Amino acid sequence: MAVHLVCLTNDGGVPLFSRSKGDSKSLAFAEQGMLYGVQMFSQNHNITLQSTTTDEAKVVWRVFNQSVVLVILVADDGSPDVHLNTLLDNVFHAMVMLVGLDNLVNIRNVERLRKDLRICYNVIDNLLEGTTDLFGYLTETVDVLSCPENITLQEPLEAFVNSADSTFGCLHCNGRLVVATSKWWSLSGQEMMLLAMFIKSLPSNSSSDVPVYLPHASPKVPHRLLSFHLLPGVVVSVLCLATPTLAEAEAQLIEQCWRPHMDPLRACKQAPPQNVPKGTPIDTGILGYLLVNTDQHKCLCSIHLPAREGSAAEKGNLPIPRRRQILTTFYRNTVGTLFPAVHSPDRKDSSGTEFSSYSHTVQETYICGEDHKCYAICQDSSQFFVLFSMAVPQYAIRSVTTNLLGLLTKEKIFTDRRNIKAS
Fold first, then answer.
1. Angle between the N-to-C axes of helices 189-201 and 82-99, in degrees from 0 to 180, rounded to the nearest 10
2. Burial 134-146 (b: 16+ CB within 10 A, else e)
3. What pLDDT digit, counting tens, does each position of 247-297 carry?
4. pLDDT tens for residues 122-140?
5. Residues contacting residue 38 through CB under 8 Å, at least 6 positions apart
6. Closest Cα partner for 96 from 192, 15, 213?
7. Do residues 374 and 391 touch, judged by C-beta distance below 8 A?
């Protein structure tokens, strides 16, 4: 699916960048100007232009802080505008994270801002592609990894962060958050997701010292993000001020805090792609699931559940890209219409409020497609979406979904660590 994103200044419509993904060519300069012209015409007549739909496409406009205009053009899949607004919100806050809010609100030198924004391209491109096995970009939460090392790696992380004279630190494995300090868990879901995406985009087998702004907690004052690859795909990060230097942290703290814990780090790296808590029974007809904790801003998901020989999943097995597509579409068509959308703290657009027009609270829904079945539950702070093989009987999908939700929400990965003090 082709996606076009255009970023312009609100005062004059000067292009800052454009990004395109998919099987079509980039938008021409005249086409970018036309999209801005429609928005400016509406703005001059005191009309807030939100979106428009053609026979084949949808266009959504957002103005941020009266300084930056983001426009996205995609094929219309019938889902509510809330998800494209979430995408634009993520893009803008990725820009805030890497160049700071002041530089976007008070644009003094357009050419310099264009150059500064290049550091955002990897994160923005990943947001637009949406073809990974992670779903945090869609749910405004951080993807988490469930493994026994969620417990054993907490202590060395705390020791490492304390040695760096900080309270913000975490460990990622292939883009998923494994352990973090209580202060890191206290960040907004969008902040944790964008930081995870940026850390995953860093060069492998390297160390880095990058100034970052926390889009909600500290949008104008930067912190230093120190990141170290302990193993391929396994990265420990800490937010700090002037000290320690990158060289000091690498020479003194990494060896001291992490060398004795290489075995659990290797075990974490080799965790099965199913991302299912150890010992949790999974029905053989399940092909994938997505569990969102809207309070703790965590997302536990998998589209790599194996189709065992002779099982219902094997009889109606689906390739991984198809599983991802179905779960994504099911989420987009459910959240914002039937289930409430959970936004980042300063989000002001009204999209995603359609569900409030119902006379009752929708708690469960399901669909049956030609090659699959899906069931979803909205319960307390959990939104749970499960993809089933077509071979699973319809009468069974509700009970299987309910039972699995009860098991997963009791796992240690969903222990709320935001108010837990380090020992």
1. 60
2. bbbbbbbbbbbbb
3. 999 998 998 999 999 999 999 999 888 898 888 889 989 999 999 999 999
4. 999 999 987 788 999 999 9
5. 49, 61
6. 213
7. no
